[in-house]
Amino acid sequence: MSWLKEVVGREKAIISMLHLQAMPGDPGYNKEKGMKWIVEKAKEDLEALQEGGVDAIMFSNEYSLPYLTEVRRETVASMARIIGELKPYISVPYGVNVLWDPKASLDLAVAVDAKFIREIFTGVYASDFGLWNTNCGDVVRHQHEIGAENVRLLFNIVPEAARYLADRDLKQIAKSTVFNCRPDALCVSGLTAGSPTDMTMLREVKEEVPDTVVLANTGCRKETIEGLLGIADGAVVATTFKYEGKFENQVDMNRVKEFMAVVRNFRGEA
After folding, report:
1. For 102-130, how does the pLDDT look when each residue is reduced to its tens digit (9 = 90+)?
2. The overall pTM is greater than 0.90
3. What's the Cα-to-Cα distance from 80 to each of 72, 230, 255, 267, rounded to whole Å?
4. What torsion do the CA atoms of 150, 49, 188, 210 make, to the nearest 10 degrees?
5. Cα 179 to the chain's mean position, in Å?
6. Cβ within 8 Å of residue 167, ≥6 positions away
């Protein structure tokens, strides 16, 4: 039994992303509509996801494009306000993901009582956001300094829109990451949000680190989720839950229900 049972409530868990609209400081922020509108949109998505039956939710500043690797404080402050206003309505376990800043994610997690975060904790990359370096040891020490020891760390080892600078096999990366950094989970992704997770890569990682939780991190669809869950311990899902399966749209509760019906059948709950 993995920590997913303890924290999320079940194995083969579906963690749904809740993409927050562009916030103050983001290029796409709508100043006329302001923060109240962002909270309203987030509440609509929250209700659709929970009514649709997801196991857990992860709040993310997904529309803060282009992303920063050191997030500005207005982003964290805005996310804290949004999640704080939504807390009375949240009925499932939840985490946070401040793209792409692990310390900011931990700070936010402590502020809003989140159970887990997902980030890039290890490696050096050439990315769409420039040369991307990390310092896992510093981040984990910060985790302990702020009293976030119980926040679970989901390591994305296949960063979106980036390439590992060292010529290393993914299996080697998975094995050394587990040995050196003790992640709570490894996330295997496609190129961008909505891009399919490669099942061969997913299988290789899980076989290399069988005692570590491995999650399919992008591009999970109703047609593929049974195959993915046959390999992985769970999945992080977002784009397929949206109207017409488009990244920029809000959540369609019917699509969530249809997806989760397949998952429940796979788990023997139907």
Report:
1. 999 999 999 999 999 999 999 999 998 89
2. yes
3. 13, 36, 28, 34
4. 60
5. 22
6. none
